[in-house]
């Protein structure tokens, strides 16, 4: 059985738009991660970057199910001793819903150079307006 070797130069990258209004945060993030990696394409190979561009709108209207708003926290370390910071998702979704969506999508991409490169093709917006109309994005149903 031979291995498929897609040529990255010949891969056509499309633009997709995902509407997160009323949909759980994780469901939107999984669809975005799949599109960014290119797993929906028949020419997918895990060692090649063949994903598409993704625009996520209405992040402020994304839903967290259960008690995740109060019980879930985003934690990070500053690098200094004793400086473990945390913020609840209730405050994060109120102040920066774009960051919450980026963190969710980033967690679903691989921790490699391909994953970091894929994340550069993600655009996240709080409301329904975005400035990528010139690329003619197609609507993708979540």
Strand content: 15-25%
Number of helices: 5
| CATH domain topology | Ribosomal Protein L13p, Chain: A
Q: What does the radius of gyration come to?
A: 17 Å
Name given to the CATH architecture: Alpha-Beta Complex
Count every beta strand, where a strand is a DSSP E run of 2 or more residues: 6
By secondary-structure content and strand pairing, the structural class works out as alpha/beta
Give the topology string: H per helix, E per strand. EHEHEEHHHEE
**Average predicted local confidence, pLDDT:** 94
Overall morphology: globular
How would you sum up this structure, described in words?
There is one protein chain. With 142 residues, the protein is α/β, with parallel strands linked by helices. It has a single domain, classed as Ribosomal protein L13 (Ribosomal Protein L13p, Chain: A), CATH 3.90.1180.10. 30% of the residues lie in helices and 18% in strands. The protein contains five helices and six strands. The strands form two sheets. A four-stranded parallel beta sheet has the order 5-2-1-6, covered by helices on one side. The radius of gyration is 17 Å and the shape is globular. The termini are far apart. The model has no long low-confidence stretch (mean pLDDT 94).
